[in-house]
Amino acid sequence: MHPKTLYSATRRIAAAETIVSVSSRSHRVIAEHRERRKSLDRQLCDRSRRGLDWTNFFLGDVQMSFGAFLAFYLASLGWSKQDVGFALTVGVLAGVAAQIPGGAAADAVRWKRGLAAIGIVIIAASAVILALWPDLPLVFAAQILHGLTGGIVGPAIMAISLGLAGRRGMSFRVGRNFRFAAAGNALTAAGMGTIAVYFSNQAIFLVTAALCIPTLIALAQIRPEEIDYARARNAGKRDQTLDIQRVIDLAKNRNLLVFAGCLLLFQFSNASLLPILGENLGQSRETLSVLYMAGLIVVPQLIVAILAPWIGYWSELWGRKPLFLAGLAFEATRALLFTIVVDPRFMIPVQMLDGITGSIITVTTILIITDVTSGTGRFNLAQGLLGTLTGLSAALSNSVTGAIVQQFGDVPGLLAMAAGTATAAVLVWLLLPETKPKEYED
Prior knowledge:
With 442 residues, the protein is mainly α. The protein is built from 17 helices and no strands. Helix 3 (65-76) packs antiparallel against helix 4 (81-108) and helix 13 runs antiparallel to helix 14. The termini are far apart.
């Protein structure tokens, strides 16, 4: 064999062996990390672990109707885009008002399951009102009731998760929470589309109310004695008191403020995109429009169900910041693609990017909040504070973007969304350091 040919073949073999070696090491590291995360989760009894899993699953079910399906429902009843936007905004503002007191309550109250149960019952009442009395004043009342649960249920579930898993197991636990929630969302979205086709759009909300019953049953399976009160609010190991930081103290946390600003921009740029698509489909009067709407919801939720636990694994290996930046990049790309994709059949593949973004942003957001509030005892209040800011941003998004679309069309609105998300990515890149600690304290 010619020396040059032999040398080239040797180099190719060496390169192939290097790739195989790197791939093997990567698989081994991920497998080892996965087993460590699972071993932490297995420290919980089966009853509590499964109870939390299925609580998240059914919560995904009951929350699904309030959002894009609500926009579709109201549009199908003849509501204008502006009125739909106002109805959505009222619900968001109610959620904003509940965030800080809800987070403070989740920190202070020891009966975390009871707090979550109250929120679930309110969701059921809201769904019944929307199904039976969809008049303007009652729709606004239902939206206010549902909005108030945003400051109760979410913080309570995350407090339970942190109280059960601790910081060491939180990345795995949060990923698992969102996997079950996304699976519930996907199953419900598909089912709701079918129900609307064969029965009526009104039936969507009656089914939502009925699904609150298994949600409460699953919540009751979590053992309260396994929820550590200090860990549930991210306090010190032996801190069982209520001598914890105030809101003004959280305002001095630079990393928390930077992250809040980035989330605010992201939420403003993202919140109204799917409702606008839903309004367009609802007003199209096509026979299969409700099924297309269901597809736009189901596809990203399936992706979240697959990816969410892996985001937790990768956040431990690579850190939170690179993943968060990737999520913002996918969202900006999605908004740009929707400026040229208008056929419902091709919207669904583009909407897959929302699943990737959702799995990354939802998981890393909780983990970053956990990181920057370590030892403060104000994990849930910090959630409420960020929820208030992002909720205001979402409320403005629905109204402002709805007005832009009404006046100038969809394309300018979508371009503005992409620009806002890109700006958030630049702020994260320049101002937010990596928050993952080298070692956990618990």
